[in-house]
């Protein structure tokens, strides 16, 4: 090309929250030995200083919304280029090129004029020596193959220019004409995998991609390594990467190989899920399954993408196939993984066995020698039967119910995948950093919240604190465990309950397929009711524990008095846990106990003298009062009796209509109402079989009691300091749906021998719709759990507030015309448990009067009172009311403070801060109730255990 003008090159930098890397990237671009003719920067809604850095370096930045994918960002950048630009050099905000990178790429393009796409050697940043990629390809299982060993260092061993399937977009040099002719990058691959897909399409269209190892780019791989989270990656990076790999394979593979490819990917995904579960990587296992299910739901997009690629394909298929990974490579990776796993398990088992043998020999040498001799004798016995593990696996795989249950559990975990990590949003408040905050809130008589309050902590904090302590002191892990295990726990408990209930009405009991239907149908209640997606811990836990409580209640029918008493203690413990999460559960249980005991005493007058008949139900009702004494006594004493009827969570709570309650829905966030209506119809049909009609009528009485309690609660309105609220109906709803499921199952047991097979088959087909569609809806439904919303308070103020309760932040929202609301933030903000305390605390008259004077006619004395109340900062989050801001600007003692958001106004109180404003004493009654609670908990746990009966057997 000597004698001709050099080709114009434009560098296109796409950034998103990349301020930590951009200064180095900008400096590297300026230091290029062959500088690009123009640099275009596209920023996709960064929340840091990225746009400012790019504008200062390269001029105006092309803006894009925060959810913009990489393909759209590149298109926006191309639109800014003039027709003279022939080459486009793509760079990420976390990829810094070596000084000669562009020069080497252009030199290779001149030496190989047939090349249309060129890419550099990628090395790890910040280590700078470790190789990441020298060209990439993809295997038949969707694995990204670089041909490098793990942790391989660059020693010049891969420095030949060669043709490859694809190169990374971090440093890719591509002819503009080719990029536009191929339609750019695919929008279905917004973050990951777009380079492999583009390279595959380019090769199929007859274009050549070269890797140029002489050009070096250092890449931090921020998205892949989880160094930053975006709206596109979320918390599940592995899900996005795996979905991109599967999509790339399915849309680019040849038509005749597509069926085999689909089967291979499905089976491979299941194997990968199993492998991740074996190494306890539950998150990756669920991401694998979710990626496959996501593509199943996007079959139309796959078909359209395949048609577009066929229209552009001109190269022989054999040419493209030669650029893909060898067919044997996935099997080698599989063997390596199996070998590593077996080696690790063998070493661990050997270590454990050796420690146990050493401990046993040290404790009792004689007994250890005798046991060793016995084991040798057994081993030498030729007639000894050896269990065959393969037969157990075969039995499992040939059992449709067992396989279906396993798939249902996997689907439930996929449906609740948003519960992984820091789940917060909707009605679910953030959790504190340590479990000590929960223990403190539970044990304290006085809480430094707002302006200080003696309202007791909600009852759910004790079980949550115990669970978080067991899980290593992580409140986030405790909440995630509750959200993830609620549905599987409900499934397990319902199976056990229905199995016993079926045997009570029929000698043969309920068939396993019927137990499967009932268990799955009820296990979906936390999800289909809308409680899970709305972050309502109360109804979720209530639905999960109710089957276990019902199973314990069946013990009241045991002929042995001791077992009836034990059932009463066990039910009392479970009812206490239920009441801690949904206080109205105690109201439903008490009403049911009164109805059932009254009916028994009327039918059997002689039972009145037998305490073991009415004593266990009464015990079950009274136990929660002892277990939760600090909560309910403190609430009544502090004028917060509304706590006895409110479900935990942020207000306002859902107020379902009568139809929504009957169909098992807590509001508009639940599944379609007609799924619940089908369950009601099935429960009504269960009244027809004569054999089980009496049992079904009894279950309908339970459903009627739950419905009446819910109806009574719906007529009640609770007046709180934050406004009005409706009582919680999570517990009545769970009882109602559970009763409908039980009635349908018992009716089906009675119909097996009395209903014509065609009619029974039709009812079964209709019934199967309820769990199948409910499970499908749960997997694909959107929930409201997300990252915590921005509070609008400057970060430095938040840090100051964590120094002590006297560094409070007064937050004013609204305007003068529509009304102003005020809240006081202290510490790390309002977390789970503190929401309920603040909502039930009465209005602080002194603070309200001070705030009213502050926004109307502030004086120096007003600001002094703020300091005396323990308030250091005043914040008007965007959009700040101009009249209020002007008045605060003029107030003596308020100093204007900085705020990151241009629409937010902030001030600092320039007055002494009182350290005694939020101090409160310790209540002797509260301490006594805590002691009663601890003794009651230990006592109930001991009385629940069947130790006495076991001793008698021995």
Automatic annotation (TrEMBL):
<feature type="transmembrane region" description="Helical">
    <location>
        <begin position="671"/>
        <end position="688"/>
    </location>
</feature>
<dbReference type="Pfam" id="PF13641">
    <property type="entry name" value="Glyco_tranf_2_3"/>
</dbReference>
<keyword id="KW-0808">Transferase</keyword>
<feature type="transmembrane region" description="Helical">
    <location>
        <begin position="924"/>
        <end position="945"/>
    </location>
</feature>
<keyword id="KW-0812">Transmembrane</keyword>
<feature type="transmembrane region" description="Helical">
    <location>
        <begin position="695"/>
        <end position="717"/>
    </location>
</feature>
<feature type="transmembrane region" description="Helical">
    <location>
        <begin position="585"/>
        <end position="607"/>
    </location>
</feature>
<dbReference type="InterPro" id="IPR050834">
    <property type="entry name" value="Glycosyltransf_2"/>
</dbReference>
<feature type="transmembrane region" description="Helical">
    <location>
        <begin position="729"/>
        <end position="751"/>
    </location>
</feature>
<feature type="transmembrane region" description="Helical">
    <location>
        <begin position="614"/>
        <end position="633"/>
    </location>
</feature>
<keyword id="KW-0472">Membrane</keyword>
<dbReference type="InterPro" id="IPR029044">
    <property type="entry name" value="Nucleotide-diphossugar_trans"/>
</dbReference>
<dbReference type="GO" id="GO:0016740">
    <property type="term" value="F:transferase activity"/>
</dbReference>
<feature type="transmembrane region" description="Helical">
    <location>
        <begin position="758"/>
        <end position="780"/>
    </location>
</feature>
<protein>
    <submittedName>
        <fullName>GT2 family glycosyltransferase</fullName>
    </submittedName>
</protein>
<feature type="transmembrane region" description="Helical">
    <location>
        <begin position="513"/>
        <end position="532"/>
    </location>
</feature>
<feature type="transmembrane region" description="Helical">
    <location>
        <begin position="464"/>
        <end position="492"/>
    </location>
</feature>
<keyword id="KW-1133">Transmembrane helix</keyword>
């Amino acid at each position: 090309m000597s004698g001709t003008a050099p080709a114009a090159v434009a560098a296109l930098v796409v950034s998103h929250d990349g301020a930590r890397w951009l200064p180095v990237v900008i400096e590297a671009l300026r230091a290029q030995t062959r500088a690009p003719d123009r640099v275009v920067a596209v920023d996709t809604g960064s929340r840091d200083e990225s746009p400012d850095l790019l504008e200062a370096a390269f001029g105006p930045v092309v803006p894009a919304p925060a959810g913009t994918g990489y393909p759209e960002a590149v298109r926006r950048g191309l639109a800014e280029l003039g027709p003279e630009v022939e080459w486009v050099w793509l760079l990420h905000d976390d990829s810094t090129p070596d000084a000669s990178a562009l020069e080497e790429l252009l030199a290779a393009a001149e030496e190989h004029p047939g090349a249309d796409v060129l890419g550099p050697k990628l090395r790890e940043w910040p280590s700078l020596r470790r190789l990441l990629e020298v060209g990439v390809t993809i295997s038949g299982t969707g694995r990204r193959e670089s041909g490098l060993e793990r942790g391989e260092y660059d020693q010049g061993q891969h420095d030949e220019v060669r043709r490859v399937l694809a190169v990374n977009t971090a440093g890719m040099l591509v002819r503009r004409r080719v990029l536009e002719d191929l339609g750019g990058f695919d929008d279905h691959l917004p973050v990951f995998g777009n380079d492999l897909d583009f390279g595959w399409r380019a090769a199929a269209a007859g274009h050549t991609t070269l890797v140029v190892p002489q050009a070096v780019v250092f890449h931090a791989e921020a998205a892949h390594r989880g160094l930053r989270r975006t709206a596109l990656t979320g918390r599940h990076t592995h899900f996005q990467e795996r979905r991109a790999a599967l999509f790339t394979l399915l849309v680019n593979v040849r038509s005749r190989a597509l069926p085999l490819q689909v089967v291979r990917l499905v089976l491979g995904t299941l194997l990968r899920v199993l492998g991740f579960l074996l190494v306890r990587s539950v998150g990756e296992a669920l991401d694998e399954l979710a990626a496959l299910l996501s593509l199943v739901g996007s079959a139309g997009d796959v078909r359209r993408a395949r048609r577009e690629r066929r229209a552009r394909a001109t190269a022989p298929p054999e040419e493209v196939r030669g650029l893909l990974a060898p067919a044997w490579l996935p099997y080698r990776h599989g063997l390596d993984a199996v070998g590593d796993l077996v080696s690790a398990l063998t070493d661990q088992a050997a270590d454990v066995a050796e420690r146990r043998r050493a401990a046993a020999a040290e404790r009792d040498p004689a007994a250890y020698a005798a046991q060793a001799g016995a084991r040798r004798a057994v081993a030498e016995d030729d007639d000894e039967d050896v269990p065959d593990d393969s037969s157990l696996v075969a039995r499992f795989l040939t059992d449709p119910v067992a396989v279906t249950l396993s798939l249902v559990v996997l689907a439930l975990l996929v449906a609740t995948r948003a519960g992984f990590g820091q789940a917060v949003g909707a009605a679910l408040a953030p959790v504190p950093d340590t479990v000590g905050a929960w223990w403190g809130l539970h044990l304290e008589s006085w809480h430094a919240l707002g302006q200080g309050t003696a309202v007791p902590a909600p009852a759910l904090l004790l079980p949550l604190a115990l669970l978080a302590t067991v899980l290593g002191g992580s409140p986030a892990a405790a909440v995630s465990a509750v959200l993830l295990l609620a549905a599987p726990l409900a499934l397990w408990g319902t199976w056990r309950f229905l199995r016993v209930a079926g045997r009570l009405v029929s000698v043969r009991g309920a068939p396993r397929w019927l137990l499967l239907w009932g268990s799955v149908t009820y296990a979906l209640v936390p999800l289909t009711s809308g409680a899970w997606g709305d972050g309502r811990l109360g109804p979720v836990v209530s639905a999960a524990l109710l089957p276990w409580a019902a199973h314990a209640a069946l013990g009241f029918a045991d002929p042995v008095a001791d077992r009836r008493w034990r059932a009463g203690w066990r039910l009392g413990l479970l009812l206490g846990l239920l009441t801690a999460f949904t206080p109205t559960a105690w109201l439903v249980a008490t009403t049911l106990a009164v109805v059932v005991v009254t009916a028994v005493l009327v039918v059997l007058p002689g039972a009145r003298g037998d305490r073991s008949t009415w004593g266990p139900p009464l015990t079950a009702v009274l136990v929660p009062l002892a277990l939760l004494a600090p909560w309910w006594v403190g609430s009544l004493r502090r004028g917060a009796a509304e706590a006895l009827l409110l479900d935990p969570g942020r207000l306002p709570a859902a107020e379902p209509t009568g139809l929504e309650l009957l169909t098992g829905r807590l509001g508009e966030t639940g599944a379609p109402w007609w799924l619940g209506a089908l369950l009601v119809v099935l429960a009504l049909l269960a009244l027809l079989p004569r054999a089980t009609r009496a049992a079904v009528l009894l279950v309908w009485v339970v459903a009627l009691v739950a419905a009446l309690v819910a109806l009574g609660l719906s007529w009640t309105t609770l007046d709180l300091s934050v406004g009005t609220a409706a009582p919680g109906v999570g517990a009545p709803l769970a009882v109602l749906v559970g009763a409908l499921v039980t009635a349908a199952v018992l009716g089906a047991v009675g119909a097996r021998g009395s209903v014509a097979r065609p009619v029974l088959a039709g009812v079964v087909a209709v019934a199967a719709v309820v769990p199948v569609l409910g499970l499908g809806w749960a997997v694909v439904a959107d929930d409201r759990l997300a990252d915590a919303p921005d509070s609008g308070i400057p970060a430095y103020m938040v840090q100051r507030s964590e120094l002590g309760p006297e560094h409070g932040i007064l937050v004013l929202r609204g305007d003068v015309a529509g009304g102003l609301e005020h809240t006081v933030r202290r510490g790390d903000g309002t977390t789970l448990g503190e929401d309920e305390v603040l909502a039930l605390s009465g209005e602080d008259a002194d603070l309200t009067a001070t705030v009213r004077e502050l926004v109307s006619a502030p004086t120096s004395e007003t600001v002094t009172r703020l300091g005396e109340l323990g308030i250091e900062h005043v914040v008007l989050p965007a959009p700040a009311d101009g009249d209020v801001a002007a008045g605060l600007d003029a107030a003596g003692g308020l100093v204007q403070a900085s705020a990151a958001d241009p629409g937010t106004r902030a001030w600092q109180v320039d007055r002494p801060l009182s350290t005694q404003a939020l101090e409160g004493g310790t209540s002797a009654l509260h301490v006594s109730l805590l002691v009663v609670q601890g003794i009651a908990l230990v006592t109930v746990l001991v009385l629940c255990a069947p130790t006495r009966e076991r001793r008698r057997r021995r």
